[in-house]
Amino acid sequence: MPIAFAPSNTELTVRSVLAEEKTKKHLREMGIAAGGKITILSSSGGSVIVAVKEGRLCLDKSVANKIIVA
Questions:
Q1: pTM of the model
Q2: Which is deepest, 16, 25, 62, 64, by most CB within 10 Å?
């Protein structure tokens, strides 16, 4: 399921990132890559705040819909 629809306060595993290579590279550099663990902290209007490693990131709706988690 896309990260925008995932439940809050749950640790999830990133299955894939369905974005352009430039965006995938940028997300990898921030710690979001296939096999990685993330936690959804908040979600509203499609935008998502996630905890990745020791930091937090805010993802807009278009990017959040391209990150598939399980």
A1: 0.90
A2: 64
C-alpha torsion 32→4→51→59, nearest 10: 70
Domain 3-69 has CATH 3.40.50.300: no
Provide the pLDDT confidence category of residue 44 given band limits of 50, 70 and 90: confident
Spatial distance between the Cα atoms of 16 and 13, rounded to a whole number of angstroms: 9
- Per domain, the residue ranges of the chain are 3-69
What gap in Å lies between CA 65 and CA 48, rounded to an integer?
10
Mean pLDDT, range 33-49, rounded to an integer: 92
